[in-house]
Design goal:
The protein is of the alpha+beta class. The chain has a single domain, classed as PRC-barrel domain (SH3 type barrels, Roll). It has four helices and six strands, in the order H-H-H-E-E-E-E-E-E-H. Strand 1 and strand 2 form a beta hairpin. The two termini are 32 Å apart. About 6% of the residues have low confidence.
């Protein structure tokens, strides 16, 4: 597990979903946007869309085993799974699978899923988007807000 990769995905997802930075609040008003500190973090951060989505996933031997198609963010804003698509060749139906983010690593600029093979990915249960909410849930719907 590469804790740096997991930390980068978590930070970038938190920035996409909104800041939890403290703001001085006035009764009945809440500022929009982000603080200077969060803005600096964004500038120094990286983009999941540009750095992860659509990128190939290889095994320890450098063989391509799939492509990152999506990142699943849990209601608590933690990044939990990467959706990897296999069988993406010339319009052939792909087979999406959910892989815990902790199992991915970055080595020599490549996303690596240690021990993976195309056959092992194909043998995993197919990930179904119908079981995942399409839109985030309102903050009011969570007990901790």
């Amino acid at each position: 597990m590469n804790s740096k990769l997991v930390a980068q995905i978590v930070v970038s997802s938190a920035l996409v979903l909104g800041s939890t930075a403290s703001f001085a609040q006035v009764a009945g008003a809440q500022p929009l946007g982000v603080s200077v500190e969060v803005s600096t973090a964004i500038i120094n951060g990286w983009s999941v869309k540009k750095s992860i989505l659509g990128k190939p996933v290889v095994n320890d031997e450098g063989q391509k085993v799939g492509t990152i198609r999506d990142i699943i963010v849990a209601p608590d804003k933690s990044v939990s799974f990467a959706i990897i698509g296999a069988n993406q060749f010339l319009g052939v139906k792909h087979h999406d699978v959910a892989i815990p983010v902790e199992q991915l690593d970055v080595k020599n600029g490549q996303l690596v899923l240690a021990g993976a093979t195309k056959d092992a990915i194909k043998a995993l249960p197919e990930f179904q988007y119908t079981k995942v909410k399409a839109a985030p849930v309102s903050r009011a719907d969570f007990d901790h807000h």
